[in-house]
Write a structure and sequence with these properties.
It is a single chain. This protein is α+β, with helices and mostly antiparallel strands and 450 residues long. Helix content is 34%, strand content 28%. The chain is built from 15 helices and 23 strands. Strands 3-9-10-16-13-12-11 form a seven-stranded mixed β-sheet, sandwiched between helices. Helix 2 crosses helix 11. It is globular and about 80 Å long. It binds adenosine-5'-triphosphate. The site of adenosine-5'-triphosphate has 15 residues, from strand 10, strand 13, strand 16 and helix 11.
Length: 450
Protein backbone atom coordinates (compact mmCIF):
# COMPACT_ATOMS: atom_id res chain seq x y z
CA UNK A 1 0.00 0.00 0.00
CA UNK A 2 2.82 2.41 0.87
CA UNK A 3 4.44 1.83 -2.52
CA UNK A 4 1.14 2.51 -4.26
CA UNK A 5 0.37 5.67 -2.29
CA UNK A 6 3.84 7.00 -2.97
CA UNK A 7 3.65 6.19 -6.69
CA UNK A 8 0.25 7.91 -6.87
CA UNK A 9 1.70 11.06 -5.34
CA UNK A 10 5.00 10.98 -7.26
CA UNK A 11 3.43 10.51 -10.67
CA UNK A 12 0.33 12.67 -10.25
CA UNK A 13 -2.54 10.21 -9.70
CA UNK A 14 -3.65 11.24 -6.21
CA UNK A 15 -2.46 13.98 -3.84
CA UNK A 16 -3.27 14.51 -0.16
CA UNK A 17 -6.13 17.05 0.01
CA UNK A 18 -5.32 20.72 0.83
CA UNK A 19 -1.67 19.71 1.12
CA UNK A 20 -0.08 23.17 1.25
CA UNK A 21 -2.18 23.90 4.35
CA UNK A 22 -1.03 20.76 6.11
CA UNK A 23 -3.82 18.67 4.59
CA UNK A 24 -7.27 17.67 5.79
CA UNK A 25 -7.41 14.16 7.22
CA UNK A 26 -8.70 11.53 4.80
CA UNK A 27 -9.32 13.91 1.94
CA UNK A 28 -7.63 13.35 -1.39
CA UNK A 29 -7.33 15.32 -4.60
CA UNK A 30 -7.14 13.47 -7.89
CA UNK A 31 -4.23 14.73 -9.98
CA UNK A 32 -3.95 14.83 -13.79
CA UNK A 33 -3.68 11.03 -14.12
CA UNK A 34 -6.17 10.15 -11.38
CA UNK A 35 -8.93 12.37 -12.71
CA UNK A 36 -8.44 10.93 -16.20
CA UNK A 37 -8.73 7.39 -14.83
CA UNK A 38 -11.88 8.26 -12.93
CA UNK A 39 -13.35 9.74 -16.10
CA UNK A 40 -12.37 6.59 -18.02
CA UNK A 41 -14.00 4.36 -15.39
CA UNK A 42 -17.19 6.42 -15.35
CA UNK A 43 -17.37 6.69 -19.14
CA UNK A 44 -16.88 2.95 -19.57
CA UNK A 45 -19.58 2.22 -17.00
CA UNK A 46 -22.01 4.79 -18.46
CA UNK A 47 -21.47 3.51 -22.00
CA UNK A 48 -22.12 -0.10 -21.04
CA UNK A 49 -24.89 0.59 -18.52
CA UNK A 50 -26.81 3.36 -20.27
CA UNK A 51 -25.76 3.93 -23.88
CA UNK A 52 -25.50 0.30 -25.03
CA UNK A 53 -28.80 -0.80 -23.45
CA UNK A 54 -32.35 -0.07 -24.45
CA UNK A 55 -33.70 -0.77 -20.96
CA UNK A 56 -31.65 1.89 -19.12
CA UNK A 57 -31.72 5.68 -18.90
CA UNK A 58 -29.59 8.17 -16.99
CA UNK A 59 -30.24 10.83 -14.38
CA UNK A 60 -28.25 13.54 -12.64
CA UNK A 61 -30.12 14.41 -9.46
CA UNK A 62 -29.29 17.25 -7.08
CA UNK A 63 -26.97 16.56 -4.16
CA UNK A 64 -29.22 18.59 -1.85
CA UNK A 65 -32.72 17.16 -1.56
CA UNK A 66 -35.84 17.89 0.44
CA UNK A 67 -35.04 16.52 3.93
CA UNK A 68 -38.25 14.49 3.83
CA UNK A 69 -36.51 12.24 1.28
CA UNK A 70 -34.16 11.08 4.03
CA UNK A 71 -37.02 10.51 6.46
CA UNK A 72 -38.79 8.35 3.88
CA UNK A 73 -35.65 6.43 2.96
CA UNK A 74 -35.01 5.56 6.61
CA UNK A 75 -31.66 7.38 6.74
CA UNK A 76 -32.69 9.88 9.44
CA UNK A 77 -33.66 7.03 11.72
CA UNK A 78 -31.20 4.29 10.86
CA UNK A 79 -28.11 5.72 9.14
CA UNK A 80 -26.18 5.72 12.40
CA UNK A 81 -23.11 3.94 13.66
CA UNK A 82 -22.26 3.25 17.32
CA UNK A 83 -19.40 5.54 18.32
CA UNK A 84 -17.04 5.21 21.30
CA UNK A 85 -14.27 7.58 22.25
CA UNK A 86 -10.93 6.93 23.94
CA UNK A 87 -11.27 8.92 27.18
CA UNK A 88 -7.63 10.03 27.07
CA UNK A 89 -6.70 10.51 23.42
CA UNK A 90 -10.26 11.36 22.28
CA UNK A 91 -9.73 9.18 19.24
CA UNK A 92 -13.02 7.82 17.96
CA UNK A 93 -13.87 4.26 17.00
CA UNK A 94 -16.83 2.26 15.74
CA UNK A 95 -17.85 0.25 18.80
CA UNK A 96 -18.99 -2.72 16.72
CA UNK A 97 -15.75 -2.85 14.72
CA UNK A 98 -13.63 -2.56 17.85
CA UNK A 99 -15.46 -5.39 19.62
CA UNK A 100 -15.29 -7.52 16.50
CA UNK A 101 -11.55 -6.89 16.04
CA UNK A 102 -10.70 -7.64 19.66
CA UNK A 103 -13.06 -10.53 20.47
CA UNK A 104 -13.99 -11.92 17.06
CA UNK A 105 -17.66 -11.64 18.10
CA UNK A 106 -20.17 -10.71 15.41
CA UNK A 107 -22.15 -7.86 16.98
CA UNK A 108 -24.02 -6.57 13.94
CA UNK A 109 -27.48 -5.35 14.83
CA UNK A 110 -26.82 -5.15 18.60
CA UNK A 111 -28.35 -2.19 20.46
CA UNK A 112 -26.26 0.49 22.20
CA UNK A 113 -27.04 -1.05 25.60
CA UNK A 114 -25.97 -4.48 24.40
CA UNK A 115 -22.71 -3.08 23.01
CA UNK A 116 -22.08 -1.21 26.27
CA UNK A 117 -22.62 -4.44 28.22
CA UNK A 118 -20.14 -6.34 26.02
CA UNK A 119 -17.52 -3.58 26.39
CA UNK A 120 -17.92 -3.77 30.17
CA UNK A 121 -18.03 -7.54 30.44
CA UNK A 122 -15.04 -8.15 28.15
CA UNK A 123 -13.16 -5.13 29.53
CA UNK A 124 -12.57 -3.74 26.06
CA UNK A 125 -10.12 -0.86 25.87
CA UNK A 126 -9.13 1.45 23.01
CA UNK A 127 -6.18 0.37 20.80
CA UNK A 128 -4.07 2.72 22.97
CA UNK A 129 -5.12 0.79 26.07
CA UNK A 130 -7.43 3.46 27.54
CA UNK A 131 -11.00 3.47 28.88
CA UNK A 132 -13.77 4.04 26.37
CA UNK A 133 -16.89 6.19 26.64
CA UNK A 134 -20.30 4.49 26.42
CA UNK A 135 -21.39 3.91 22.84
CA UNK A 136 -23.68 6.52 21.34
CA UNK A 137 -25.39 6.80 17.98
CA UNK A 138 -23.51 8.90 15.46
CA UNK A 139 -25.32 10.02 12.31
CA UNK A 140 -23.51 9.28 9.09
CA UNK A 141 -25.24 12.16 7.33
CA UNK A 142 -23.60 15.56 6.94
CA UNK A 143 -25.97 18.30 7.96
CA UNK A 144 -25.92 21.82 6.66
CA UNK A 145 -28.33 24.72 6.53
CA UNK A 146 -29.94 26.45 3.59
CA UNK A 147 -31.38 29.94 3.56
CA UNK A 148 -30.71 33.05 5.62
CA UNK A 149 -30.65 32.91 9.40
CA UNK A 150 -34.00 33.05 11.11
CA UNK A 151 -37.27 31.62 9.93
CA UNK A 152 -36.21 30.76 6.37
CA UNK A 153 -33.32 28.63 7.63
CA UNK A 154 -33.69 24.92 6.99
CA UNK A 155 -31.59 21.96 8.02
CA UNK A 156 -30.72 19.89 4.97
CA UNK A 157 -28.32 17.00 4.29
CA UNK A 158 -25.58 16.25 1.82
CA UNK A 159 -26.79 13.03 0.20
CA UNK A 160 -25.17 9.88 1.65
CA UNK A 161 -26.01 7.93 -1.55
CA UNK A 162 -27.15 8.80 -5.05
CA UNK A 163 -29.95 6.22 -5.05
CA UNK A 164 -32.78 8.33 -3.67
CA UNK A 165 -32.90 10.79 -6.59
CA UNK A 166 -33.71 7.84 -8.82
CA UNK A 167 -36.65 6.75 -6.66
CA UNK A 168 -37.92 10.30 -6.27
CA UNK A 169 -37.84 10.73 -10.08
CA UNK A 170 -39.27 7.32 -10.90
CA UNK A 171 -42.58 8.77 -12.10
CA UNK A 172 -40.93 11.60 -14.06
CA UNK A 173 -38.70 9.13 -15.88
CA UNK A 174 -41.54 6.69 -16.50
CA UNK A 175 -43.79 9.42 -17.92
CA UNK A 176 -41.14 10.91 -20.20
CA UNK A 177 -38.88 8.07 -21.34
CA UNK A 178 -41.39 5.52 -22.69
CA UNK A 179 -39.57 2.77 -20.79
CA UNK A 180 -41.55 -0.13 -19.45
CA UNK A 181 -40.67 -2.59 -16.73
CA UNK A 182 -38.11 -4.07 -16.52
CA UNK A 183 -36.05 -0.90 -16.91
CA UNK A 184 -33.46 0.96 -14.90
CA UNK A 185 -32.15 4.39 -14.06
CA UNK A 186 -28.42 5.02 -13.62
CA UNK A 187 -26.67 7.87 -11.92
CA UNK A 188 -23.10 8.91 -11.19
CA UNK A 189 -22.32 11.47 -8.54
CA UNK A 190 -20.81 12.49 -5.25
CA UNK A 191 -22.02 11.12 -1.93
CA UNK A 192 -20.99 12.20 1.57
CA UNK A 193 -20.76 10.17 4.75
CA UNK A 194 -19.52 11.29 8.10
CA UNK A 195 -17.59 8.06 8.62
CA UNK A 196 -16.28 7.44 12.14
CA UNK A 197 -13.22 5.59 10.92
CA UNK A 198 -12.26 6.79 7.46
CA UNK A 199 -8.92 5.64 6.11
CA UNK A 200 -6.91 3.26 3.98
CA UNK A 201 -6.15 5.90 1.36
CA UNK A 202 -9.17 6.38 -0.95
CA UNK A 203 -10.96 3.26 0.36
CA UNK A 204 -13.09 5.02 2.96
CA UNK A 205 -13.45 8.77 2.76
CA UNK A 206 -16.05 11.31 3.81
CA UNK A 207 -16.63 12.43 0.25
CA UNK A 208 -16.68 9.93 -2.59
CA UNK A 209 -18.33 9.11 -5.87
CA UNK A 210 -20.88 6.44 -6.61
CA UNK A 211 -22.25 4.88 -9.78
CA UNK A 212 -25.63 3.42 -8.95
CA UNK A 213 -28.45 1.66 -10.76
CA UNK A 214 -32.03 1.24 -9.67
CA UNK A 215 -33.51 -1.49 -11.83
CA UNK A 216 -37.33 -1.62 -11.62
CA UNK A 217 -38.91 -5.04 -11.98
CA UNK A 218 -41.92 -7.22 -11.24
CA UNK A 219 -41.59 -8.96 -7.90
CA UNK A 220 -41.63 -12.42 -9.50
CA UNK A 221 -38.59 -11.48 -11.60
CA UNK A 222 -36.19 -10.56 -8.79
CA UNK A 223 -34.02 -13.66 -8.62
CA UNK A 224 -33.38 -13.70 -12.35
CA UNK A 225 -32.56 -9.97 -12.49
CA UNK A 226 -30.36 -10.22 -9.39
CA UNK A 227 -28.32 -12.95 -11.04
CA UNK A 228 -28.05 -11.03 -14.35
CA UNK A 229 -26.61 -7.98 -12.59
CA UNK A 230 -24.38 -10.19 -10.50
CA UNK A 231 -22.86 -11.64 -13.67
CA UNK A 232 -22.73 -8.25 -15.34
CA UNK A 233 -20.57 -6.74 -12.62
CA UNK A 234 -18.12 -9.64 -12.64
CA UNK A 235 -17.63 -9.25 -16.39
CA UNK A 236 -17.27 -5.52 -16.02
CA UNK A 237 -14.66 -5.96 -13.28
CA UNK A 238 -12.56 -8.06 -15.64
CA UNK A 239 -13.03 -5.65 -18.56
CA UNK A 240 -11.60 -2.73 -16.58
CA UNK A 241 -8.58 -4.62 -15.27
CA UNK A 242 -9.62 -5.77 -11.81
CA UNK A 243 -7.79 -8.99 -11.02
CA UNK A 244 -10.42 -11.73 -10.83
CA UNK A 245 -8.27 -13.73 -8.44
CA UNK A 246 -8.59 -10.98 -5.83
CA UNK A 247 -12.40 -10.94 -6.03
CA UNK A 248 -14.91 -12.88 -3.97
CA UNK A 249 -18.62 -12.66 -3.23
CA UNK A 250 -20.16 -12.30 0.20
CA UNK A 251 -23.85 -12.74 0.78
CA UNK A 252 -25.19 -10.93 3.86
CA UNK A 253 -26.69 -13.21 6.47
CA UNK A 254 -30.41 -12.44 7.08
CA UNK A 255 -29.72 -10.70 10.41
CA UNK A 256 -27.12 -8.43 8.75
CA UNK A 257 -29.39 -7.21 5.95
CA UNK A 258 -30.23 -3.49 5.80
CA UNK A 259 -33.80 -2.58 6.71
CA UNK A 260 -34.80 -2.37 3.03
CA UNK A 261 -33.12 -5.47 1.66
CA UNK A 262 -34.18 -9.09 1.19
CA UNK A 263 -30.89 -10.15 -0.29
CA UNK A 264 -27.52 -8.41 -0.58
CA UNK A 265 -24.35 -9.82 -2.09
CA UNK A 266 -21.22 -7.72 -1.90
CA UNK A 267 -18.30 -8.06 -4.24
CA UNK A 268 -15.24 -8.25 -1.99
CA UNK A 269 -11.72 -7.37 -3.06
CA UNK A 270 -8.46 -8.41 -1.49
CA UNK A 271 -6.93 -4.97 -0.81
CA UNK A 272 -3.43 -4.87 0.72
CA UNK A 273 -5.11 -4.05 4.07
CA UNK A 274 -7.54 -6.97 3.91
CA UNK A 275 -10.59 -8.34 2.12
CA UNK A 276 -13.17 -5.54 2.03
CA UNK A 277 -16.34 -4.55 0.20
CA UNK A 278 -15.78 -3.22 -3.28
CA UNK A 279 -19.36 -3.06 -4.62
CA UNK A 280 -22.86 -3.94 -3.43
CA UNK A 281 -25.90 -5.56 -5.01
CA UNK A 282 -29.20 -5.49 -3.16
CA UNK A 283 -32.74 -6.63 -3.77
CA UNK A 284 -34.57 -3.69 -2.18
CA UNK A 285 -38.10 -5.08 -2.69
CA UNK A 286 -40.70 -2.29 -3.16
CA UNK A 287 -39.50 -0.60 0.03
CA UNK A 288 -38.25 2.68 -1.43
CA UNK A 289 -41.10 3.50 -3.79
CA UNK A 290 -43.65 2.49 -1.12
CA UNK A 291 -41.97 4.74 1.42
CA UNK A 292 -41.85 7.69 -0.98
CA UNK A 293 -45.49 7.15 -1.88
CA UNK A 294 -46.36 7.22 1.81
CA UNK A 295 -44.25 10.25 2.70
CA UNK A 296 -44.96 12.34 -0.41
CA UNK A 297 -48.62 11.44 -0.76
CA UNK A 298 -48.03 10.96 -4.52
CA UNK A 299 -49.15 7.92 -6.46
CA UNK A 300 -46.05 5.96 -7.52
CA UNK A 301 -47.76 2.84 -8.83
CA UNK A 302 -47.00 1.35 -12.20
CA UNK A 303 -49.74 0.31 -14.60
CA UNK A 304 -49.18 -2.89 -16.56
CA UNK A 305 -49.31 -1.76 -20.23
CA UNK A 306 -50.88 -5.11 -21.20
CA UNK A 307 -53.54 -4.98 -18.53
CA UNK A 308 -54.59 -1.51 -17.37
CA UNK A 309 -56.37 -2.87 -14.34
CA UNK A 310 -53.10 -4.28 -12.97
CA UNK A 311 -51.37 -1.65 -10.88
CA UNK A 312 -48.44 -2.28 -8.56
CA UNK A 313 -45.38 -0.75 -6.95
CA UNK A 314 -42.29 -2.02 -8.80
CA UNK A 315 -39.60 -3.94 -6.97
CA UNK A 316 -35.96 -2.92 -7.29
CA UNK A 317 -32.55 -4.49 -7.83
CA UNK A 318 -29.74 -2.10 -6.94
CA UNK A 319 -26.19 -2.65 -8.21
CA UNK A 320 -23.94 -0.02 -6.64
CA UNK A 321 -20.31 0.85 -7.39
CA UNK A 322 -17.93 3.24 -5.63
CA UNK A 323 -15.79 5.04 -8.21
CA UNK A 324 -12.90 5.62 -5.80
CA UNK A 325 -12.85 2.01 -4.56
CA UNK A 326 -13.00 0.83 -8.17
CA UNK A 327 -9.98 2.96 -8.97
CA UNK A 328 -8.15 1.61 -5.92
CA UNK A 329 -8.91 -2.00 -6.95
CA UNK A 330 -7.61 -1.23 -10.45
CA UNK A 331 -4.43 0.35 -9.07
CA UNK A 332 -3.82 -2.66 -6.81
CA UNK A 333 -4.51 -5.11 -9.66
CA UNK A 334 -2.27 -3.25 -12.12
CA UNK A 335 0.79 -2.75 -9.91
CA UNK A 336 3.66 -4.98 -10.92
CA UNK A 337 7.41 -5.15 -10.37
CA UNK A 338 9.86 -7.15 -12.45
CA UNK A 339 13.61 -7.51 -12.78
CA UNK A 340 15.01 -6.14 -16.04
CA UNK A 341 18.78 -6.12 -16.57
CA UNK A 342 19.38 -6.25 -12.84
CA UNK A 343 17.01 -3.36 -12.12
CA UNK A 344 13.47 -3.31 -10.81
CA UNK A 345 10.94 -2.14 -13.35
CA UNK A 346 7.68 -0.87 -11.82
CA UNK A 347 4.86 -1.15 -14.29
CA UNK A 348 1.17 -0.42 -14.00
CA UNK A 349 -0.53 -2.95 -16.25
CA UNK A 350 -3.71 -0.97 -16.90
CA UNK A 351 -6.22 -2.03 -19.52
CA UNK A 352 -6.17 0.19 -22.60
CA UNK A 353 -9.68 1.51 -21.89
CA UNK A 354 -8.71 2.71 -18.40
CA UNK A 355 -5.04 3.78 -18.72
CA UNK A 356 -4.72 7.55 -18.29
CA UNK A 357 -2.68 7.81 -21.49
CA UNK A 358 -2.81 5.20 -24.24
CA UNK A 359 0.16 6.47 -26.23
CA UNK A 360 3.23 8.54 -25.36
CA UNK A 361 5.08 10.25 -28.20
CA UNK A 362 8.73 10.59 -27.31
CA UNK A 363 11.11 12.33 -29.75
CA UNK A 364 14.61 11.09 -29.02
CA UNK A 365 15.97 14.62 -28.63
CA UNK A 366 14.71 18.19 -28.44
CA UNK A 367 16.14 19.05 -31.86
CA UNK A 368 13.66 21.10 -33.81
CA UNK A 369 13.23 18.64 -36.70
CA UNK A 370 12.41 15.81 -34.29
CA UNK A 371 10.02 18.02 -32.31
CA UNK A 372 8.20 19.00 -35.48
CA UNK A 373 7.79 15.40 -36.59
CA UNK A 374 6.89 14.30 -33.04
CA UNK A 375 4.17 16.96 -32.79
CA UNK A 376 2.86 15.86 -36.17
CA UNK A 377 2.56 12.28 -34.93
CA UNK A 378 0.91 13.57 -31.73
CA UNK A 379 -1.61 15.66 -33.67
CA UNK A 380 -2.45 12.70 -35.92
CA UNK A 381 -3.20 10.39 -33.03
CA UNK A 382 -4.69 12.61 -30.33
CA UNK A 383 -8.19 12.76 -31.84
CA UNK A 384 -8.58 9.00 -31.46
CA UNK A 385 -6.38 8.19 -28.47
CA UNK A 386 -5.33 9.72 -25.18
CA UNK A 387 -1.79 10.85 -26.00
CA UNK A 388 1.04 12.47 -24.14
CA UNK A 389 3.94 14.30 -25.74
CA UNK A 390 7.24 14.35 -23.85
CA UNK A 391 10.67 15.34 -25.10
CA UNK A 392 12.54 15.96 -21.85
CA UNK A 393 15.08 13.69 -20.07
CA UNK A 394 16.79 10.56 -21.34
CA UNK A 395 14.69 8.02 -23.20
CA UNK A 396 15.35 5.45 -20.45
CA UNK A 397 13.88 7.75 -17.80
CA UNK A 398 10.92 8.54 -20.03
CA UNK A 399 10.18 4.83 -20.59
CA UNK A 400 10.41 4.33 -16.82
CA UNK A 401 7.89 7.08 -16.24
CA UNK A 402 5.51 5.75 -18.90
CA UNK A 403 5.73 2.25 -17.37
CA UNK A 404 4.87 3.67 -13.96
CA UNK A 405 1.86 5.54 -15.30
CA UNK A 406 0.79 2.49 -17.29
CA UNK A 407 0.93 3.85 -20.85
CA UNK A 408 0.41 0.84 -23.16
CA UNK A 409 2.43 2.24 -26.11
CA UNK A 410 5.42 4.54 -26.47
CA UNK A 411 6.31 5.90 -29.90
CA UNK A 412 9.89 7.03 -30.35
CA UNK A 413 10.74 9.46 -33.10
CA UNK A 414 14.46 9.37 -33.98
CA UNK A 415 16.82 10.78 -36.59
CA UNK A 416 16.21 7.84 -38.92
CA UNK A 417 12.51 8.70 -38.82
CA UNK A 418 13.39 11.91 -40.69
CA UNK A 419 14.88 9.78 -43.47
CA UNK A 420 12.59 6.75 -43.67
CA UNK A 421 9.27 8.03 -42.22
CA UNK A 422 9.24 5.22 -39.65
CA UNK A 423 9.00 5.28 -35.84
CA UNK A 424 9.54 2.74 -33.07
CA UNK A 425 6.52 1.51 -31.11
CA UNK A 426 7.35 0.01 -27.72
CA UNK A 427 4.84 -2.29 -26.05
CA UNK A 428 4.58 -1.63 -22.28
CA UNK A 429 4.06 -5.24 -21.23
CA UNK A 430 6.44 -7.16 -23.51
CA UNK A 431 8.84 -4.20 -24.02
CA UNK A 432 8.98 -5.38 -27.63
CA UNK A 433 9.93 -2.67 -30.09
CA UNK A 434 8.47 -2.57 -33.61
CA UNK A 435 9.43 -0.27 -36.43
CA UNK A 436 6.32 1.10 -38.16
CA UNK A 437 5.73 3.57 -40.98
CA UNK A 438 4.12 6.77 -39.64
CA UNK A 439 1.20 6.47 -42.07
CA UNK A 440 0.47 2.92 -40.79
CA UNK A 441 0.55 3.94 -37.10
CA UNK A 442 -3.14 4.54 -36.71
CA UNK A 443 -4.22 1.12 -37.96
CA UNK A 444 -1.36 -0.61 -36.09
CA UNK A 445 -2.43 0.97 -32.80
CA UNK A 446 -6.12 0.47 -33.50
CA UNK A 447 -5.65 -3.29 -33.83
CA UNK A 448 -3.85 -3.40 -30.50
CA UNK A 449 -6.09 -1.06 -28.54
CA UNK A 450 -9.47 -2.65 -29.41
P1 LIG B 1 -19.06 -0.15 3.94
O1 LIG B 1 -19.67 -1.38 4.54
O2 LIG B 1 -17.65 -0.35 3.43
O3 LIG B 1 -19.21 1.09 4.79
P2 LIG B 1 -21.52 0.23 2.61
O4 LIG B 1 -22.08 -1.16 2.58
O5 LIG B 1 -22.01 1.19 3.61
O6 LIG B 1 -19.92 0.17 2.64
P3 LIG B 1 -23.00 1.08 0.35
O7 LIG B 1 -23.94 1.87 1.15
O8 LIG B 1 -23.45 -0.21 -0.22
O9 LIG B 1 -21.66 0.86 1.18
O10 LIG B 1 -22.39 2.04 -0.77
C1 LIG B 1 -22.20 1.62 -2.09
C2 LIG B 1 -20.75 1.68 -2.51
O11 LIG B 1 -20.21 2.98 -2.29
C3 LIG B 1 -19.83 0.74 -1.74
O12 LIG B 1 -19.88 -0.56 -2.27
C4 LIG B 1 -18.48 1.41 -1.95
O13 LIG B 1 -17.93 1.06 -3.21
C5 LIG B 1 -18.83 2.89 -1.96
N1 LIG B 1 -18.60 3.51 -0.63
C6 LIG B 1 -19.42 3.46 0.44
N2 LIG B 1 -18.92 4.17 1.46
C7 LIG B 1 -17.75 4.71 1.01
C8 LIG B 1 -16.77 5.58 1.60
N3 LIG B 1 -16.90 6.08 2.82
N4 LIG B 1 -15.69 5.93 0.84
C9 LIG B 1 -15.55 5.46 -0.41
N5 LIG B 1 -16.45 4.66 -1.02
C10 LIG B 1 -17.54 4.29 -0.33
Amino acid sequence: MEKLVSLCKRRGFIFPGSEIYGGLANSWDYGPLGVQMKINIKNDWWKKVVEERDDMVGLDGAILMNPKVWEASGHVETFNDPLVEDKKTHKRYRADHLIQDITGMDVDGKSLDELAAIIKEKDIKSPDGNELTSPRQFSGMFETTAGAAGEGKQVIYLRPETAQAMFVNFKNVLDTSRKRIPFGIAQIGKAFRNEITPGNFIFRTLEFEQMEIEFFIEESDWEKQFELWNKWRLNWAKSIGINEKLLSFEEHAPEKLSHYSKKTTDVMFKFPFGVQELWGLAYRTDYDLSQHEKFSGQNLTYTDPNDNSRKFIPHVIEPTFGVDRTLLAILVSAYDEEEVNGETRVVMRFKNNIAPYQIAILPLSKKEQLSTLGKEVFNNLNKDYRCEYDETQSIGKRYRRQDEIGTPFCITVDFESLEDGMVTVRDRDSMEQTRIAIDKLNSFIQDKIQ
